[in-house]
């Protein structure tokens, strides 16, 4: 008979019942409960559609709060090995034998993490990707946690296959390796062959997994609650972070969910060049057994083996970065556990993703917020960056940003001292940690998995190329999104980037175009379509006004330059001396436009013939016609002003203190006139030049 805690845990953590499954619920489908409960509940389950499991920390807490001795025993089992390791390291230091005993201590750490189980193994896996943080001896040992853990007996694995798939393995598969090929934190993998001939990987879940994970999650969550309430300096949502981790690891224990994740990942990212996602065989997949396409490949952390195969590891890392950017910033569905065991280089030079158990989601406001934050950081707009932290829920809306803005400026001005290409995520997070400690920042739960994913990926990249900088590879994608994404959030970011105090920053546009053309999927024609749609929308009115002003200045400047050159040529021919004159300042915009056109010509896929059909449509737009009228009016005003200055105004010294209408300022320019122009009642006139 179950006590209250067991009943609560069972009911809260079992799969959600459906019409087909509410009558009989298979007990081993209930992932999060102690084995004693499993022993009490043995029944049949015949449905092929497995309901999703859910993580309920309240039910787990209710169950284990009634078992303090079990919890205390586990806590001692966790703390004691680490204390012994720390004592050993201290003793090595006293004897001057740290280097001599480093390999032994590294093996000791790996053994501790292995014995403690999945939650701690995943911590070790994350550290195994950081050669910039972990000494080589420790790195080598921690790398073994990716797929070289001790396996569990074949008899248990084959029993699970029979229970899940309804028959003995030899009756289901044409071949199955006698021993597991790899063993990871949650399961082990056999190589097999279906009777239809396909070579497959068969993953079988570890026994007793639910009991250890739920107890560890309970202890870690209690520790997070204690730390958050005891240390007021900690403002991160530690409990939320633990709940996010718990929810993800529960999904990882459901192999049917992993199969659905794999298919969704393939649908969203499988079309990216050189990305490969293995196929799931649903007929041979259930909650504790997953059958998927077998992938022959080499880890990215073995660059010498890859080089021997003629595979460019650095290129595949860049492919992984581009895929991760689309996961985090485009669709939001991302692989939260990209350690080297889950990323393989295939013999034909593709990057294959494996193990889709731990996935997470970034919502649209957070995706746009992350892009805006990068733009504001690059733009050194630290006030905008502080507001981004509010949008991203690091700061509450009522937070006083006044002291935070200069603190961010101090951090990022130093970090951006050379260029964006020199930044890496670790340097940013390290420099931000003090600011987040000093001010009321609160790290949201979703952010922890994002950072884990990015830092892990960067660790793999550093292992391949110590000088690899993720941001330098990421900015082309950011530039492409800014130029092509029609969302109001990114249109606003583009405006902030290109305009400052009413003036257009040509160098920023040049930089965006140069970076965007390096993005693998940048479509210039699509970018032009998006730019035109925005230009002629209500939100693009400010750009149309600016373009009218710049076109008027450019045409007028070009006309003046042409007349000056013609006059200079005539004066030289008739012997009146040197008629050379510097070009007008407004000709600078023509040079800017020339550089922009050169960048466009160098962009892959640029074809001016594809732009020709756009011209008639542009000319027929009412906004274009209004712009034409405004340009003609502006040129007429300038011509009239020049005529008045050259022929009608008398030459007289400037009178800076005069307030009369039509007077000149001390630079020789007319302050105002009552002639009226464009209905404004004022017309600015350039001063007449001395002959």
UniProtKB/TrEMBL annotation:
CDD domains: ABC1_ADCK3-like. Residues 1-25, 651-691 are annotated as: Disordered. One of its GO terms (molecular function) is protein kinase activity. This is AarF/ABC1/UbiB kinase family protein. Signal peptide: none annotated. Residues 1-10, 657-675 have a biased composition (Polar residues). PROSITE patterns: PROTEIN_KINASE_DOM. Residues 175-504 form the Protein kinase domain. Keywords: Kinase, Transferase. The keyword Kinase applies. Belongs to the protein kinase superfamily. ADCK protein kinase family.
């Amino acid at each position: 008979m179950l006590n209250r805690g067991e009943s609560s845990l069972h009911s809260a953590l079992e799969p959600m019942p459906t019409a087909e499954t509410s009558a009989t619920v298979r007990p081993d489908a209930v992932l999060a409960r102690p084995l004693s409960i499993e022993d009490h509940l043995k029944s049949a389950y015949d449905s092929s559609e497995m309901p999703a499991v859910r993580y309920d920390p309240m039910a787990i807490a209710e169950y284990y709060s009634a078992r303090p001795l079990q919890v205390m025993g586990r806590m001692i089992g966790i703390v004691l090995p680490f204390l012994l390791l720390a004592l050993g390291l201290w003793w090595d230091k006293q004897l001057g034998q740290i280097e001599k005993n480093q390999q032994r201590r590294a093996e000791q750490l790996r053994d501790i993490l292995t014995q403690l189980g999945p939650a701690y193994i995943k911590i070790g896996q994350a550290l195994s990707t950081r050669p910039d943080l972990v000494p080589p001896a420790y790195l080598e040992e921690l790398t073994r946690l990716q797929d070289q853990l001790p396996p569990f007996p074949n008899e248990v694995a084959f029993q699970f296959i029979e229970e899940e798939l309804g028959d003995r393995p030899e009756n289901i598969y044409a071949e199955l390796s006698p021993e597991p090929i790899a063993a990871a934190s949650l399961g082990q993998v056999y190589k097999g062959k279906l009777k239809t001939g396909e070579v497959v990987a068969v993953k079988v879940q570890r026994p007793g997994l639910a009991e250890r994970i739920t107890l560890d999650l309970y202890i870690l969550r209690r520790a997070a609650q204690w730390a958050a309430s005891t240390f007021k300096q900690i403002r991160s949502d530690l409990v939320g972070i633990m709940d996010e981790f718990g929810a993800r690891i529960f999904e990882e224990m459901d192999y049917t969910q992993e199969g659905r994740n794999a298919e969704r990942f393939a649908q969203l990212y499988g079309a990216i060049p050189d990305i490969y996602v293995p196929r799931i065989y649903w007929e041979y997949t259930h909650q504790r057994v997953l059958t998927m396409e077998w992938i022959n490949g080499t880890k990215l952390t073995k660059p010498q083996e890859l080089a021997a195969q003629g595979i460019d590891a650095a290129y595949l890392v860049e492919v992984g970065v581009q895929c991760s950017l689309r996961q985090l910033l485009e669709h939001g569905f991302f692989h939260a556990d990209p350690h080297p065991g889950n990323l393989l280089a295939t013999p034909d030079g593709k990057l294959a993703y494996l193990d889709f158990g731990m996935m997470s989601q970034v919502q649209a406001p957070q995706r746009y917020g992350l892009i805006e934050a990068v733009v504001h950081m690059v733009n050194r707009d630290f006030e905008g960056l502080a507001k981004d932290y509010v949008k991203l829920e690091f700061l509450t809306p009522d937070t006083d940003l006044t002291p935070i803005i200069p603190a961010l400026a101090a951090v990022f001005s130093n970090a951006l001292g050379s260029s964006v290409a020199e930044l890496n995520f670790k340097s940013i997070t390290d420099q931000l940690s003090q600011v987040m400690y000093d001010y009321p920042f609160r790290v949201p739960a979703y952010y922890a998995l994002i950072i884990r994913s990015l830092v892990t990926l960067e660790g793999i990249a550093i292992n391949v190329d110590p000088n690899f900088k993720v941001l330098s590879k990421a900015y082309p994608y950011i530039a492409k999104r800014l130029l092509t994404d029609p969302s109001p959030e990114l249109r606003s970011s583009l405006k902030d980037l290109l305009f400052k105090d009413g003036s257009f920053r040509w160098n920023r546009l040049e930089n965006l175009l140069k970076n965007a053309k390096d993005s693998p999927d940048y479509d210039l024609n699509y970018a032009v379509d998006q730019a035109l749609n925005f230009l002629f929308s209500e939100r693009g009115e400010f750009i149309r006004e600016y373009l009218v002003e710049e076109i008027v200045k450019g045409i007028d400047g070009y006309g003046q330059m042409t007349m000056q050159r013609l006059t200079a040529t005539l004066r030289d021919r008739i012997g009146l001396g040197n008629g050379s004159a510097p070009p007008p300042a407004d000709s600078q915009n023509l040079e800017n436009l020339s550089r922009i056109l050169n960048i466009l010509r160098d962009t892959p896929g640029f074809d001016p013939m594809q732009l020709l059909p756009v011209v008639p449509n542009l000319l027929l737009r009412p906004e274009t016609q209004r712009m034409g009228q405004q340009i003609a009016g502006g040129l007429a005003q300038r011509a009239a002003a020049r005529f008045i200055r050259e022929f009608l105004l008398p030459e007289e010294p400037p009178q800076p203190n005069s307030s009369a209408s039509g007077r000149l300022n001390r630079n020789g320019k007319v302050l105002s006139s009552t002639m009226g122009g464009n209905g404004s009642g004022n017309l600015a006139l350039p001063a007449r030049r001395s002959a």
